[in-house]
Amino acid sequence: MGDKNELSLIRAQPRILRRLGREANPGDLVFRALATLFAATVIGVVLLMVAEMSRASVASIKAFGLGFIVSQEWDPVREVFGALPFIYGTVVSSLLAVAIAVPVSLGVALFLTELAPKWLRSPLASMVELLAAVPSVVYGLWGIFGLAPFLREHVEPVLASTLGFLPLFQGPHQGYGMLTGGVILAIMILPTIASVSREVLLAVPNFFREGALALGATQWEALRDVILPYARSGLIGAVILGLGRALGETMAVTMVIGNSPEIKASLFAPSYTMASVIANEFAEATGDLHLASLAEVGLLLFVVTLLLNVVARLLVWRVAGPTGNTR
Amino acid sequence: MKDFSIVTWVLAGLSLVAVGCKGGSDQGAPQAAASGAAASEPAKPTTTSLNGAGATFPNALYSKWTSEYNKLHPDVQINYQPIGSGGGIAKIRDKTVDFGATDSPMSNEEAAKAPGKLVHLPMTIGAVAIAYNVPEVADLKLEPAALADIYLGTVTKWNDPKIAASNAGTKLPATPIVVVHRSDGSGTTAVFTGYLSKSSKDWTDKVGAGKSVKWPAGQGMPGNPGVTGRVKDSPGAIGYVDLADAVQNKLSMASLKNPAGKFVKPEIAAISAAAAGVEMPDTLYTSIINAPGETAYPISSFTYILVYEDMPDAAKGKVLTTYLWWAVHDGQNMSEALNYAPLPSAVVGKVEARLRTLHSGATVLYSGT
User: Fold this and answer.
1) What span, in angstroms and rounded, lies between the C-alpha atoms of B132 and B241?
2) Complex ipTM value
3) Average pLDDT score over chain B
4) Are the CB atoms for A280 and B222 separated by under 8 Å?
5) Residues 6+ positions from B203 with CB-CB distance below 8 Å
6) Beta bridge partners of B255
7) Is B212 on the interface with A (CB under 8 A)?
8) A157 vs A151, A183, B174, B185, CA distance in Å?
9) pLDDT value at position A17?
10) Strands B359-360 and B363-364: what pairing?
11) Percent of chain A as helix, strand, coil, to the nearest 5
12) Is A62 exposed, middle or buried (0-12, 13-18, 19+ CB in 10 A)?
């Protein structure tokens, strides 16, 4: 616990005045000021964004009030706006993406750290990271010409015939809709979750593995009972990062989700996300109320992202305890 | 040590290059000045750069114009950003660009928000094509009411009697119609919904016209390429796209029944006929949807450039008016290859007259003949 003592020693002297008096080192002071400034910039940008979006959405908040969040009507011609279908589309498509991407990317990360032969690990890891570098519009085009027809011809009919008793898999197979949006998002967040998870698993000290194996655990038992629990909070962090990317992703989703502001139980039906409606309509919106409503959708996207992050953070605390090894 | 030495070499190399450049420019400057003084015309006069922004629909033609014009006048650099008509109107209003561009004319409220009087100048004419993907049907003929019903979601099968009525002799399949529309706000949508509103009372009552509308049926795809791709890829699909996209992607296009009762395909001659059949008012904007004339294609539209009648900068204004003059004359020859229709000569005459009235303070801007 020598670390802790050193820590408290350092903590005992941070009074700037004292530093100025005796141990003031100009370099330290400048560095401290700069670092504080940078940290403040981040907070400043966030606050400015919230302020600016609130200012831009005043007209719509006044006109629709809370009804904006529960109304399903979005009619630019008659200037009646409600955001519920977009909120629903964003949340469901992102959760769907996470549900698909988490098992796959955990598998990728485990394979890369625990199972793959040494010579294969780093080329495979860089290929996974390469996926993250593909621009989202490329994913979108591939979605239109590759994924959507494939899902329509080969996946949706199978889902409908085997799981068609669930309302989730009913209705016509169009290839464009919530399911395709969720799959595209899953592919896009997979590299993020996989590479962060890989780093987290690499940070698990080797003697945990060796200890577990020495005690007679099989490789599966060592993974399940020792390595994964140790890395749990870090892995949840990776999922939160992925979720964040899914919530804000715009272009690829716009190209495959069908862009129809409706709330339908079926995953085959077209849907619409908050980011998509802003991207779609902002450039050509000329009515004041239309612009204000789009700004309010932006503000709500901010709120939804924040809420989901808070929920995820609480989840980490529940799992690992507030002081848990969140690295 | 090894790394250090590499860094040293790289730095040394960079500094040599820097010194070289510096020397070069030191020598070059007096030469340029000397040649400029010697020739009666300066070899490289100051470049005038004009910025415009707006509609995406005429972008192919405007890009062609700017690059061709730059070849003729190397001292004029024109940048056009296709950010959408709404953005174009907003930018010219804020005076952050020298000209704006829009597919649908400004509303009176939009015009009232501008700090000065904005003038519409028609530049070219485009058409919205109804593209479909039914391989069995070579030449689909559509009545306006049937088209509106398809987009209202009340006609859902290709062999619906409302479609069959105008396609006697053609065997229509009993497959569902996949309705595709634009998801992004767009002038193309404004023109198309404007047409449906003029053709169907149901459409006017339930949906109306605008750049973004509340679609009663179908799926939205972003941009002309999105709709084009969707129609191409989905059997049974129908969508509306700019003529250029439909032609380039070899989509089948429906013939539409015009007010004269004839079925007309979207072709340059049919668009020109629509423009020729309408008298251009002095405001220089008008709708040519459902234009009279037996050969006129019903979903055609002018697209406009917006400039201030009283321009803030006389020097730029002179260059801009000269460019616009060129665009409505020589520029028109380039339109057909890009699937736009050239302006009728009567309209060109009115644009000429308007260009001559543009001024900056007391200075009249256009000085050509």
Assistant:
1) 10
2) 0.72
3) 86
4) yes
5) B148, B151, B152, B193, B196, B197
6) B141
7) yes
8) 8, 16, 20, 33
9) 53
10) antiparallel
11) 75, 0, 20
12) exposed
The answer to whether the beta carbons of residues A252 and A273 sit under 8 Å apart is: no
Alpha-helix runs per DSSP H in chain B: 2-38, 59-72, 85-93, 108-112, 144-152, 161-164, 187-199, 201-206, 223-233, 243-248, 268-276, 314-328, 345-357
- Confidence bin at B366 (pLDDT 50/70/90): confident
Pairing of strands B99-102, B300-308: antiparallel
pLDDT tens for B212-223 read: 899 999 989 988
Dig out the tokens for B179 from the structure: 């309705």
Q: How far is B27 from chain A (nearest CA, A)?
A: 43
CA-CA distance, A171 to A160, in Å (whole number)? 8
> What is the identity of the amino acid at A1?
M
Chain centroid offset of residue B130 CA: 18
**A286 to chain B: which residues are within 8 Å by CB?**
86, 89-90, 107, 110, 211
Q: Say how many CA atoms lie within 13 Å of A31 toward its Cβ.
A: 5
Average pLDDT score over residue span B41-57: 78
Q: How far, in Å, CA of A254 to CA of A89, rounded?
A: 11
Q: What percent of chain B has pLDDT over 90?
A: 65
Nearest to B296 by CA among B361, B341, B229: B341
Instruction: State phi, psi for A252 to the nearest 5 degrees.
Output: -60, -40
Burial A193-217 (b: 16+ CB within 10 A, else e): bbbbbbebbeebeeeebeebeeeeb
Query: Please, what is the end-to-end C-alpha distance for chain A in angstroms?
Result: 19
Q: What 3-state DSSP class applies to B78? A: strand
Write out A208-231 in H/E/C secondary structure: HHHHHHHCCCCHHHHHHHHHHHHH
Inter-chain residue contact A74 with B214, CB threshold 8 Å: yes
Per-residue pLDDT, B85: 82
A285–B110 CB contact, under 8 Å:
no
Q: Are strands B178-182 and B255-257 parallel, antiparallel or unpaired?
A: unpaired
Report the residue from A76, A283, A290 with minimal CB separation from B87.
Answer: A283
pLDDT score of B113 more than 90: no
Those of residues 222-251 in A touching chain B at CB distance below 8 A are 251
Q: Left if phi > 0, otherwise alpha if psi is -120 to 50, otherwise beta: which for B221?
A: beta
State residue B131 phi and psi, 5-degree precision.
-95, 145
Tens of pLDDT along chain A (327 residues)?
444 444 444 555 555 555 555 556 888 889 999 999 999 999 999 999 999 999 999 999 999 989 999 999 899 888 899 999 999 999 999 999 999 999 999 999 999 998 889 899 889 988 888 888 888 889 988 998 899 889 988 888 888 888 888 888 887 788 889 999 999 999 999 999 999 999 999 999 988 889 999 999 998 999 988 999 889 888 988 998 899 899 988 889 998 998 988 898 888 889 999 999 999 888 778 788 999 999 999 999 999 998 988 887 787 777 665 544 444
Chain B interface includes A4 (CB < 8 A): no
Measured CA distances, B357 to B48, B321, B366 (Å)? 22, 10, 8
Q: How confident is the model at residue B211 (pLDDT cuts 50, 70, 90)?
A: confident
Q: Which residues pair with B242 in a beta bridge?
A: B128
Q: What tens digit of pLDDT does each residue of B336-365 get?
A: 999 999 999 999 999 999 999 999 988 888
Give the tokens for residue A130.
């390469």
Four-residue CA torsion sign, B209, B215, B217, B223: positive
